[in-house]
Design brief:
Layout lengths: L9 H10 L1 E4 L3 E7 L6 E5 L7 H19 L7 E7 L8 H14 L5
Parallel strand pairs: 3-4
Antiparallel strand pairs: 1-2, 2-4
Helix pairs in contact: 2-3
């Protein structure tokens, strides 16, 4: 299962944050911007409030894997998503993290 294409530039993250919708669960925050051309793209971020580099990288690795499993094949076209790690991201049971992501995708209209 392939990972979805990535958002990498700061201006892409800022555009999603400024124009998109946002929802939160204990495991993560999801920002979504519909109507972009091309395939669904995903960006990942974790602020320094989470902890040192080890903690932030673990949170982002878990978010990347959740996105790969949830959005890898058959992802809806035309969305830009930003997944933001929270305090609980690194230590939350992975099944709960997947449930958080599934609920957020549904809440923001990315997935039916």
């Amino acid at each position: 299962m392939a990972s979805p294409p990535r958002l990498k530039r700061r201006r892409e993250f800022l555009r999603v944050a400024g124009k998109g919708s946002r929802a939160a669960r204990p495991g993560l925050v999801l920002q979504a911007l519909p109507g972009t051309a091309g395939p669904l793209r995903v960006g990942f971020t974790a602020t320094k409030k989470l902890g040192n580099a080890v903690v932030r990288n673990r949170a982002k690795r878990r978010l990347r894997e959740a996105a790969r499993l949830m959005l890898g094949e058959g992802a809806p076209e035309g969305w830009d998503l930003v997944m933001i790690g929270r305090d609980a991201t690194g230590r939350r049971v992975f099944a709960q993290l997947m449930g958080d992501l599934r609920g957020l995708l549904k809440q923001l209209g990315v997935r039916p």
